[in-house]
Design a protein that fits this description.
The chain is an all-alpha fold and 90 residues long. The protein has one domain. It is 88% helix and 0% strand. The chain contains 3 helices and no strands. The radius of gyration is 15 Å and the shape is flat. The N and C termini lie far apart (47 Å).
C-alpha cells in the first residue's frame, strides 16, 4: 500500500458519501414540505447528520490528510449536486 492510497480512498469515500448525503437532503426536504409524513423527513435528517459526524470523526482519527481528502470529495459532491439541481429547475 502506498502513501497515497488511504487519502485517495478517503477522497472516493467522501465523494460517494457526499452524493448520497445530498440525495437524502433533497428527499428529506421534500418530505418535510409535505403535510402528512414529516416524521420520516426528520428521521432522514437526523440519520444524515449523525452519519456525517461519524464519518468525519473516523477520518479525523486517521489524520489530517485523510480528513482533508474526505472533505475534498464531499465538496466535489456538493458541486455536482448543485449542478444537477440547477439543470433540473426551470
Amino acid at each position: 500500500m502506498t502513501a497515497y492510497s488511504i487519502p485517495l480512498l478517503a477522497l472516493i469515500v467522501g465523494l460517494v458519501f457526499g452524493l448520497g448525503y445530498f440525495y437524502v437532503l433533497k428527499r428529506s426536504v421534500l418530505l418535510l414540505l409535505q403535510p402528512g409524513n414529516r416524521s420520516l423527513g426528520v428521521a432522514l435528517t437526523l440519520g444524515r447528520l449523525i452519519l456525517a459526524a461519524l464519518l468525519l470523526w473516523q477520518a479525523a482519527q486517521l489524520g489530517a490528510i485523510v480528513l482533508l481528502s474526505g472533505l475534498a470529495g464531499f465538496v466535489v459532491a456538493r458541486f455536482i449536486a448543485l449542478r444537477l439541481n440547477k439543470e433540473a429547475t426551470p
